[in-house]
Specification:
By secondary structure, this protein is an all-alpha fold. 71% of the residues lie in helices and 0% in strands. The protein contains 4 helices and no strands. The chain is elongated, with a radius of gyration of 18 Å.
């Protein structure tokens, strides 16, 4: 696979790692002693926790894609072994399934 895709994934990895660092910091801030403010903070914390989980998951997928590049397996569907279309990889650079297998497995 070309170096451009590897660099794109490295940039995405750095961006996600930065986002995760900010989220971890925001989640470590102590709550206000004021009960009404604390209720709002806890609601916000729930949202931040969901975003944190999604960010961690995406970061793991990006790192797995980088590993697949280094192993020469990037862009190959893990289900059928065929090439994953360039359009799909442009939209989802860490895709592990071709569009046909992804659609089949969703149903």
């Amino acid at each position: 696979m070309d170096d451009a895709k590897y660099q794109e994934l490295q940039k995405l990895e750095a961006s996600l790692a930065g986002r995760l660092k900010v989220l971890n910091h925001d989640l470590s801030v102590e709550h206000s002693p004021n009960w009404p403010e604390q209720a709002i903070e806890r609601e916000n914390e729930d949202v931040l926790l969901r975003v944190q989980e999604e960010t961690q998951s995406e970061l793991q997928q990006v790192r797995a894609a980088l590993k697949r590049i280094s192993e020469g397996e990037y862009g190959i569907c893990s289900e059928c072994g065929q090439a994953i279309g360039s359009g799909r990889l442009a939209a989802l650079p860490y895709a592990t399934l071709c569009i046909e297998c992804a659609e089949r497995l969703e149903h």
